[in-house]
Design goal:
Strand order of the largest sheet: 1-2-3-4-5-6-8-7
Number of domains: 1
Largest sheet: 8 strands, mixed
CATH architecture: 3-Layer(aba) Sandwich
Oligomer: single chain
Helix content: 25-40%
Number of helices: 5
Radius of gyration: 16 Å
Number of strands: 8
CATH superfamily: Gcn5-related N-acetyltransferase (GNAT)
CATH topology: Aminopeptidase
């Protein structure tokens, strides 16, 4: 059956083998990939990414949830969401999402963030959840701040990202800062 998270307007599900074309759509869209710090520059990398997500979804000791974002009414694929437990600190996880442009500016990213925070703190019993984004991606920063994550600092020009040195802004939330009212 697979893993599923429901939000008010979305369904987040484990990826399936037939999602290859959906992941390729994300990887081939320069606007989408502009700030994304994963390398999906060719079909081999895209296939490897999908294979890794499929394998992880079958593990008994699952640590990563790489999920397809779908519109329930139509089944349309809107993007990817993830929460990945830190291998060195199993009570900490990174979360995020990548939406296709047709789904930008509709409040979906905030809705996904709320669902991932609830899952992370309530189900996974995490102590800390963090998100990060390219400092040039102001939309991502806005979503993280609106979701209640605290700005923790910027790692300056630490990696070359396609066409620029990337500086990454980090945001975090502790379990003690997560009120149950965020579910509403």
């Amino acid at each position: 059956m697979g893993f599923t998270l429901e939000t008010e307007r979305l369904t987040l599900t484990d990826l399936k083998e037939d999602d290859l074309a959906n992941v390729q759509r994300i990887a081939r869209d320069r606007d989408v990939m502009r700030y994304v710090l994963i390398w999906l520059d060719n079909d081999e990398q895209v296939t490897g990414f999908l294979r890794g997500a499929l394998e992880e979804s079958q593990r008994e000791d699952r640590r990563d949830y790489i999920l397809g974002i779908r519109i329930p009414e139509t089944g349309a694929f809107a993007g990817l969401a993830f929460i990945e437990i830190d291998p060195g600190q199993t009570i900490t996880a990174e979360l995020g999402c990548i939406l296709l442009p047709a789904y930008w500016k509709a409040g979906y990213a905030s809705e996904i963030l709320r669902a991932l925070l609830a899952f992370g703190f309530q189900e996974l019993k995490l102590h800390r959840v963090y998100g990060k984004g390219d400092e040039l991606n102001t939309a991502s920063a806005h979503v993280l701040e609106k979701g209640g994550l605290t700005y923790e600092g910027t790692l300056r020009e630490h990696v070359w990202l396609r066409d620029h040195w990337r500086s990454t802004r980090y945001y975090g939330m502790l379990a003690s800062e997560y009120p149950s009212t965020r579910l509403r």
